[in-house]
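Q: What structure does this chain adopt?
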Amino acid sequence: MKKYMETLRRSQSFYSYIGLALVFIIASVIVKEFLTFDNIITVLRQGSILLILSTGLTAVILTGNMDLSVGASSGLVGCICAQLLRAGLPIPLVFLIGLLAGALVGVFNGFLVGIVKLPSFVATYGTNWVVAGLSIIIMHGDIIYGLPKGFTWFGTGYVGPIPFIIIFALVIVIIAYILLQKTTLGRDIYAYGSNKDAALFSAVPIKKTLFSAFIMSGLTAAIAGMLMTARLNAADATMGDTYGLQTVAAVVVGGTSMLGGEGGITGTVIGAMLLTIIVNVMNLLGISSFAQPMVVGFVIVVMVLFDSYSRRKQNTVVRRKQPQTN
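A:
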């Protein structure tokens, strides 16, 4: 037990666990409705979209890159699916086309970063605007309502007392965890992010790994976009915009290093839930929606500062343990 606690304390997600525990305790004390079954379900349902988006982005950030297009990509896929459903296409085909659209965005980002050699911040920021523009063109400035019930069930339906969207998000998390922790692809992603040159000499397929990470991000963005559209029973060109930076924040607050090679899905789950609980508590307290981004931003800054302090402390310890040479 002592060894486990020491390992946890040294993990990059340590302060995220502490932050989540503190927020959970404070919320339980100041908001009597917080620990009710209905509110816990509300928190999990509200966090499902963010969690799905964050799992794919985790893979990209683990390579030391960034994908700023996830929010806009989810919105684009939602718009495409809504238009196809309105045109009468069968729901399974719409899902397949949505996944293909998300994967294509991932391939495009992988091409810009892996082949053209653009910095990922610049490349995916540009992709973000391209995708946002496509959404506007597809929607013609309209908002589509009244989607088929067979489609909206995926966002609003229940399996027993549990919303299906929560169960689906959990499945995505498990799949992402297995991919990153138990497969060759996952080991290659960590190796790439830890030391690109060493990974190259170790015969890690650099381009394949990079493309795979961006495609994973594109696919989770597509899934999130379809579930978002199903839950809202509507689609418009801007519906994914609010998730862009939130997704980055969830991954970083969860302890995944933006330099790559450190972190993982477990921390991302903690980060996404932490942000979701903070927003939920502010809603229960009646805090203005205009003030909420400021509070969330403050929490993000504090968590990143703690994480940065932890990394510097660990690096100092490592340097002290290294043998001195004359």
